[in-house]
Specification:
With 259 residues, this protein is of the alpha+beta class. It has 2 domains: 3-73, Winged helix-like DNA-binding domain superfamily/Winged helix DNA-binding domain (Arc Repressor Mutant, subunit A); 87-258, Beta-Lactamase (2-Layer Sandwich). Helix content is 49%, strand content 17%. It has 10 helices and 8 strands. The chain has helices spanning 3-8, 15-29, 35-42, 46-58, 75-105, 147-154, 158-167, 181-194, 236-240, 243-258, and strands spanning 62-64, 71-73, 108-114, 119-125, 140-141, 197-200, 207-215, 221-230. A 6-stranded antiparallel sheet has the order 5-4-3-8-7-6, with helices on both faces. The chain has a two-stranded antiparallel ribbon with strand order 1-2. Helix 5 runs antiparallel to helix 10. The protein is elongated and about 70 Å long.
């Protein structure tokens, strides 16, 4: 038996993905599905399918059809489906806010969220200018020398910030990067007080940026909204002039998160 055939028969399907594969097949079928049909579709033994179906039924993700043998989506799966569609709606509205902001300030706008080793861009609307900084969605950038990263660090409690700074390498990216911990702490205190952060060519030579927090209903940072521009069009002081529209856009996105 070839590797491809074994994969198709489910032999390489990790145990933690088997229930997801069954739920995926039930959703794909669009009608109540029997354990035998599911077994054939996902390549798992019928006894294994029966056991996993019982778990999914008990937890409310699947439910038996009127024939007592077939299975269809349960209440929790239907609710999950609705939540996913709602999330897509929120992202669509979020991108509209980003687009309006980018059009107003004439520069690229980004949403970033904290990752394990840096800030990760999750949404982005490009400026129309041919000269722009290429940082696509999915890019991870350092905490210590970016506007989004410093905004996140400034939101941490003192004890957690100390733990982060112990392992955080303050690597110089440009001649302007803050590499001294005391200087960075001072910058973070100022950032926390004024509620916006800045990157004055610290991450990339010839690029400046400012960022504001997007917080949950408890005031905890969820993500950051930033604008950045080449120094040929904006220095840091001129970018700061766009703080008000940046803050208003962040408020609109916060409202979507708690809606």
């Amino acid at each position: 038996m070839t590797d491809q055939v074994r994969k198709e028969k489910g032999e390489y399907l990790p145990p933690n993905l088997r229930l997801l594969a069954i739920i995926e097949e039930v959703g794909r079928a669009g009608i109540p599905v029997s354990p035998t049909a599911i077994s054939e579709a996902v390549g798992l033994p019928v006894p294994t399918v029966h056991r996993l179906l019982a778990t999914a039924e008990e937890e409310g993700f699947l439910q038996r059809d009127v024939d007592g043998r077939s299975f269809g989506p349960g209440q929790r799966l239907r609710r999950l489906s609705g939540n996913i569609l709602s999330s897509q709606r929120i992202r669509t509205e979020r991108l509209l806010v980003l687009r309006e902001l980018a059009d107003e300030v004439g520069e690229t706008c980004n949403l970033a969220t904290p990752g394990r080793y840096g800030m990760v861009y999750i949404d982005r609307v490009e400026t129309h200018w041919p000269l722009r900084i290429q940082l696509p969605v999915g890019t991870q950038v350092p905490f210590h020398c970016t506007a989004s990263g410093k905004m996140y660090l400034s939101s941490l409690r003192s004890d957690k910030l100390s733990r982060v700074l112990k392992w955080l390498a303050l690597e110089p990216k440009t001649d302007h990067t803050i590499t001294d911990e005391a200087d960075l702490r001072k910058e973070l205190r100022e950032t926390h007080k004024r509620q916006f952060s800045s990157d004055n060519q610290e991450f990339m030579e010839g690029m400046s940026a400012i960022a504001v927090p997007i917080s949950d209903s408890e005031g905890r940072l969820l993500s950051t909204l930033s604008i950045h521009a080449p120094s040929q069009r904006h220095d840091l002081s001129s970018l700061i002039n766009h703080y008000e529209p940046l803050r208003k856009a962040a408020d609109r996105i916060e409202a979507l998160c708690v809606d």
